[in-house]
């Protein structure tokens, strides 16, 4: 079964090349440190838009 | 209050008919096995795109 | 790879037998309606305690 | 570091003004009650569409 | 049906009084700004331990 | 503000040393590939117990 499951939540705007490298490197990091084989590791990317993310009570789109 | 809460995360591409059947059958399964009345059970569908999901360090869109 | 991923969030207190039946029936319901083979479907159970869940501004433990 | 993290999951359709007020008031409420400074509090908005949310085995889009 | 759903993820250690006030004030803030009636709003508290949360590559328990 | 946010969901049982290395290496991988500075990256570890995780309709604790 696939495991661990990794979710990376970030602002939208990264390129496909960045995302491709991201899942590759993160998978390697998780495999190396947990001992889980790479083929069991799943990575999800979740993108946020600037009007749906706030810090200090203010959305990024309002700053 | 609504409860349990069920989230189904899957690749995009299922039809509306499949999704309609999915929430109906899952709700029935949860109700039958937990004893919660159907009207208290909420189901969320979350869709992933192929460039945001990877196994073995490779996104589905790159395989 | 495992997919879809199903998360069932519910109040703590169900028996092991209920949980065993829950994952079995939910998996069958998802497989039947999405066409995904059962061995690709993962189910997670997440339990909430009554002091960490509120409706109408009141926690269950306070009602 | 930012903390607490607050996620508000709701049906799509709120205006930008409503979302702006939402993150402001929620941040204030969390800061006041937990003692965390506002600049450490992050708020995420997640929107659901009516065909991806069901109660009682029926999606909102089917009711 | 209950909605919106609010999740507050924070370090463990808040008192029951703080949590009670937290869900009450957050519910009021969400109701006031989204127009949802309080009895439809659900709030979940999720606690993290210091060895399961890291910023800058270092867990809180290691700082 | 902290961002990206990374969540690693895995079976319980890893040692503190493994978790310490995990958050360090994952943070480095995310920083290198997204360009986000390490001090903006948060990592959460979520552990599952074997009776709350199932594949193929069967919990790990039942296999």
TrEMBL record, chains A, B, C, D, E, F:
Residue ranges occupied by any 4-oxalocrotonate tautomerase-like domain in the UniProt entry: 4-62
Annotated EC: 5.3.2.-
Gene Ontology molecular function: any one: isomerase activity
The keyword Isomerase appears for this protein: yes
Keyword Isomerase on entry: yes
Keyword set, alphabetical order: Isomerase
Entry's family note: Belongs to the 4-oxalocrotonate tautomerase family.
Protein's name according to its UniProt entry: Tautomerase
